[in-house]
Design a protein that fits this description.
- With 332 residues, the protein is of the alpha+beta class.
- 37% of the residues lie in helices and 20% in strands.
- It is built from 14 helices and 11 strands.
- Strands 1, 2, 3, 7, 8, 9, 10 and 11 form an 8-stranded antiparallel sheet that branches. A 3-stranded antiparallel sheet has the order 4-6-5.
- Helix 4 crosses helix 10, helix 5 packs parallel to helix 7 and helix 8 crosses helix 9.
- The relative contact order is 0.17.
C-alpha cells in the first residue's frame, strides 16, 4: 500500500510586470549518511521511481563481480555505463568499444534505436539520411553493462530486460542494499528503455548515492564522473555542466524532474524532485540550491557553460528582458 502523497512546496515563480504567470512545485532534500539535514516540502515516505538516477547504482555490480578488472574497463567506458548520453559520435564509439570487450554486438542491445539527444548528431543524421541506431539511445551504455553482468552470472542475454529474467532480482537487490532499503519495501516497474526500475523514497535514493560515491570500492565510478562530465550527459545537460563547473560535485539527472548532486568533500547530497517534471525548473532549482549551500558560487557559474542553463530572466524574441524567474525557497 502506497503512503500518503507528497506535499510539494512552491519553488519557482515566473513573473512579468508584477504578475505571476507560471509556478513550479517540488521537494528538495539536503542530507548526509545520518539522514535529512533539511527538507523543503514533505516527501511523506512517498516512493518515486529512480528513472535514470538509478544508472550509477545499477553499474555497481561491475565492481562487485570484478568485471572492471576482467575487461580492463576505462573511466570513459564506466562513465558511459552510468550515462544518459546525448548520442554524440564519441559516445557511440565508446559503447561499441564496450560491446566488443564484452563479446557482444550492437544488435544484442535490447534498447530501441532512438533519435540522439545531441542536436549536432541529429543534424548529421537528417542531412546525410542515415538511420537511427541502438547506440544513439541514451540508455545504451546501461544496456551494455547489463549484457556483461548477464554473461558473467549465466543469465539469458536474449531476454535481459524482461521482469522474469534473474537480472531483475540481482540488480534490484544491489540497488536496495546501496539505498538502505528492503527489496520488499520498494515498487518495481519498467523504465522508458524497457529495463526494470525501482521506486523508493527520495531519502533512500540519496542514501544510494552517498553510499556509492563515498565507498572506496567504487572509487573508479566516482573518478569516471569527475573526469568525464560530458560522457555522463552532454553539452548543456544539467548533470554534465554541474560536474564540469566544479571539482568536487557529482550529479545525475533522471526523468520526471529528478536530480541528485553529491558533494564528495563534505559527503553530503541534495535530491531535487520537480512535481511537473519541467527541465528548466529542475536546472534553476538545483543550481540555486548549490549556490545557497555555497557548493559553488556565481563566479564559477557565470564563467562556465552551466550559465547557459541558469537563466533567471524571461527574454523576448527581441532579446529584451521582460520578466524574471524567482526561486522562493531557502535551504539554509
Amino acid at each position: 500500500m502506497l503512503n500518503k502523497e507528497p506535499d510539494f512546496l512552491k519553488l519557482l515563480e515566473y513573473n512579468r510586470n508584477g504578475l505571476t504567470e507560471q509556478v513550479h512545485y517540488g521537494i528538495i532534500l539536503y542530507m548526509n549518511k545520518n539522514g535529512i539535514i533539511k527538507e523543503i516540502g514533505e516527501n511523506n515516505d512517498y516512493k518515486f521511481y529512480h528513472r535514470s538516477c538509478m544508472k550509477p547504482l545499477q553499474a555497481s555490480p561491475l565492481f562487485d563481480l570484478r568485471l572492471d578488472k576482467k575487461y580492463n574497463l576505462t573511466e570513459k567506458e564506466l562513465a558511459v555505463c552510468c550515462a544518459s548520453h546525448c548520442g554524440d559520435k564519441f559516445h557511440q564509439e565508446i559503447i561499441l568499444s564496450l560491446l566488443h570487450k564484452f563479446g557482444f554486438k550492437e544488435d544484442d542491445l535490447l534498447c530501441k534505436p532512438q533519435m540522439p539527444l545531441s542536436k549536432k548528431e541529429q543534424e548529421i543524421l537528417i542531412k546525410e539520411g542515415k538511420p537511427l541506431k541502438k547506440i544513439h539511445n541514451n540508455c545504451s551504455g546501461k544496456h551494455s553493462a547489463m549484457l556483461a553482468i548477464c554473461k558473467e552470472m549465466g543469465f539469458d542475454t536474449k531476454t535481459y530486460k524482461n521482469m522474469d529474467n534473474p537480472l531483475t532480482d540481482f540488480i534490484t537487490e544491489k540497488v536496495c542494499n546501496l539505498c538502505n532499503v528492503s527489496k520488499n519495501n520498494t515498487v518495481l516497474s519498467k523504465d522508458g528503455c524497457g529495463l526494470p526500475v525501482i521506486a523508493t523514497t527520495l531519502k533512500e535514493l540519496g542514501f544510494g548515492f552517498l553510499n556509492l560515491f563515498t565507498d572506496k570500492k567504487y572509487e573508479k565510478i566516482k573518478k569516471a564522473f569527475l573526469n568525464n562530465p560530458y560522457l555522463i550527459g552532454g553539452e548543456e545537460r544539467l548533470d554534465s555542466e554541474i560536474i564540469n563547473a566544479s571539482d568536487n560535485l557529482i550529479a545525475k539527472v533522471g526523468a520526471c524532474g529528478l536530480c541528485v548532486v553529491v558533494n564528495i568533500d563534505s559527503e553530503e547530497c541534495i535530491v531535487v524532485k520537480i512535481a511537473d517534471s519541467n527541465m528548466e525548473a529542475r536546472s534553476i532549482v538545483t543550481i540555486n540550491t548549490l549556490l545557497q549551500l555555497k557548493w559553488t558560487d556565481l563566479n564559477k557559474v557565470q564563467s562556465a557553460r552551466i550559465n547557459n542553463i541558469y537563466k533567471k530572466s524571461i527574454i523576448s524574441q527581441d532579446n529584451e528582458i521582460i520578466g524574471e524567474i524567482t526561486p522562493c525557497f531557502s535551504i539554509i
